[in-house]
Amino acid sequence: MNTPRLTAVLADDERLMRDQLRARLAEVWPELDIVAEARNGLEAVQLVDEHRPDIVFLDIRMPGLTGVDAARQIAQLPPRAAQDDDSADDDDPPLPEIVFITAYDQYAVEAFEQGVVDYVLKPAERERLQLTVQRLQQRLAARQAGTEPATTGRPLQQLLHQLSAQLNPGKAASYLQWIQATVGSTIQMIPVEEVLFFVSDEKYTRVQTAQVEALIRKPIKELVDELDPQLFWQIHRSTLVAVKAISGVTRDFRGRQIVSVKGHNEKLEVSRSYTGLFKGM
After folding, report:
1. What is the strand order of the sheet 55-59 is part of?
2. How far apart are CA 21 and CA 10, in angstroms?
3. Is residue 229 part of a domain?
4. 278, 270 contact by CB (below 8 A)
5. Residue 204 belongs to what domain range?
6. Are the beta carbons of 274 and 249 closer than 8 angstroms?
7. Is residue 1 part of a domain?
8. Bridge partners of 180?
9. Are 215 and 202 a contacting pair, CB within 8 Å?
10. Quick one: which of 126, 130, 223, 233 has the fewest CB in 10 Å?
11. Distance separating the N- and C-terminal Cα atoms of the chain
């Protein structure tokens, strides 16, 4: 049986850099199919959504939408099945491996040390790219064997928040402190520190505290960027839970991880993409 070829999308606003990286990859990894090239971050997100590649090479600095911002949007892309069937999450494909292309070594070193993504320094030298390819091949092989979780979840979110702050040093990170939400027929200001979890459906996001259930129109993918990732973990594409509100994690009869919440009887499912948050379960 033939093994499907691995695919990749390249994103860099400089055509010569895309040409060079494509040529170097052809030398060190001829089996890799480059299925599309993007000239900016917005194109990168669109092409990843269209092609669902195994790997994305993202220039860390691009006009309009930086590589970091593009990676954050890619991490929130819904699986194709879920676009038509909200119950299809168990079959979610993993997110692509992310490789940042950068001339700024301080960003690359931090990304590499956290082991969540890899990097290539400009200009792409054959020897360094070969090392990146070896790491990618090992990670993808471990993922297929089920010995390594997909590239997603809390570590990736935290890294992207940190890199975004480094790219915008004059813009201090300001996380949400209050949620303006509808409770019955009134609008209330709910302190974020009182929120146990957020759960989204097609139109609304439910904000749950120990005393109040409220609704807002802000989707989870926006809340992920606005809430402190140290305080709220995304455990499902439609669910964020306060870390301090997690009382325990169990498995149901189907083997799915289920989060129990302090002060509330609701059980929250952990989707496959986020099982790495609770290692050893």
Report:
1. 33-38, 7-11, 55-59, 97-102, 118-121
2. 8
3. yes
4. yes
5. 178-278
6. no
7. no
8. 189
9. no
10. 126
11. 34
The pLDDT assigned to 210 comes to 92
**Both tokens of residue 89?**
């999450």
Task: Check: CB of residue 113 under 8 Å from CB of residue 162.
Answer: no
Question: Is residue 172 included in any domain, yes or no?
Answer: no
User: Closest by alpha carbon to 61, among 13, 109, 27?
Assistant: 13
170-176, long-range: CB within 8 Å, 24+ apart, which pairs?
Answer: 175/226, 175/227, 175/228, 175/231, 176/223, 176/226, 176/227
- Do residues 117 and 88 both lie within one domain? yes
Q: Which of 167, 191, 216 is the last residue of a domain?
A: 167
Estimate the share of the chain in helix, then strand, then coil, as percent rounded to the nearest 5.
Answer: 35, 25, 35
At 49, give phi and psi (nearest 5°): -65, -35
- The neighbouring-strand residues paired with 36 are 9
Residues 25 and 78 grouped into a single domain: yes
DSSP annotation of 150: -
Reduce the secondary structure of 196-234 to three states and give it as a string: EEEEECCCCEEEEECCCEEEECCCHHHHHHHCCCCCEEE
pLDDT along the chain (281 residues), means of 10: 80 92 94 94 93 92 83 76 45 73 66 65 84 88 67 57 62 75 89 94 89 91 82 89 93 89 91 73 49
Residue 17 host element (H or E): helix 15-28
